[in-house]
Write a structure and sequence with these properties.
231 residues, two-stranded antiparallel sheet, 6 helices, 33% helix, disordered N terminus
């Protein structure tokens, strides 16, 4: 086994242990969502076009999706599109990014059970507090738009970090989209300056999260953060 593969194996094991400590199951195979309607939402996104994707930026205290053209709808492509930051047009609409300028993705790997591990350069350590939580939520909401990603872990400058979850009010090794549901605007129709595609994507994500993150959701749904919430 080569040294890079040994390091990747060790990292995956570290996140597996952290997930177990948080009560998060890591399955040998990805779980399918029990709700056909929820699954269809992400399938529709994936079939809109091979080069169409959405990344999430910050406006005030809320996160807004913005369409981007990418070579392929892969985790690495989406992270790079997000790290490129807002365009001048996005900035004119009040969109910003809490991810520090110059941050690079040194690796984006996917493991069994819908887990993605994002490795970032040291610049990412320059954001703290609420800004860090928003920066991580940008990453999580961007990556979980892919059907095969449910939870995300982070490595910065070679060291794993924990992410604050407003939903669980604590720091977690792995987080999912339900952890940052509160960052989405509750009424998309009240938002000005969004394209029709962005508005449609935002509305679909809100509808999806209302089903998946409800405390009364089906108990058989995959759990995140030790709660009865899916992702």
């Amino acid at each position: 086994m080569t040294a890079p593969r040994r390091r990747l194996g060790a990292l995956a094991a570290t996140f597996a242990l952290a997930a177990a400590a948080c009560g998060i199951p890591l399955d040998s195979e990805p779980r399918s969502a029990p709700s056909t309607e929820a699954t269809d939402t992400r399938t529709a996104d994936a079939t809109e076009g091979a080069s169409r994707a959405f990344v999430w930026f910050v406006r005030g205290n809320e996160l807004i999706p913005v369409q981007r053209d990418v070579q392929e709808r892969s985790a690495g492509e989406l992270v790079n599109a997000l790290l490129a930051g807002p365009s001048p047009g996005d900035t004119s609409r009040g969109l910003t990014s809490q991810i520090p300028p110059g941050t690079k993705a040194t690796g984006v790997t996917q493991e069994a059970g819908g887990l993605a591990i994002v490795s970032l350069s040291g610049e990412f350590a320059n954001v703290v507090g609420t800004g860090l939580t928003q920066a991580i939520s940008q990453m999580v909401l961007t990556l979980t738009s892919l059907p095969d990603i449910e939870r995300v872990g982070f490595v910065v400058a070679g060291s794993s970090i924990q992410a604050y979850s407003p939903a669980s009010r604590g720091d977690l090794a792995l987080v999912g989209e339900c952890d940052y549901q509160s960052f989405l605007p509750p009424d998309p129709t009240a938002i000005t300056g969004l394209t029709a595609n962005s508005l449609s994507h935002l509305s679909a994500r809100l509808s999806r999260l209302e089903r998946l993150c409800s405390p009364t959701a089906d108990e058989e749904a995959p759990q995140v953060s030790g709660q009865s919430q899916r992702r």
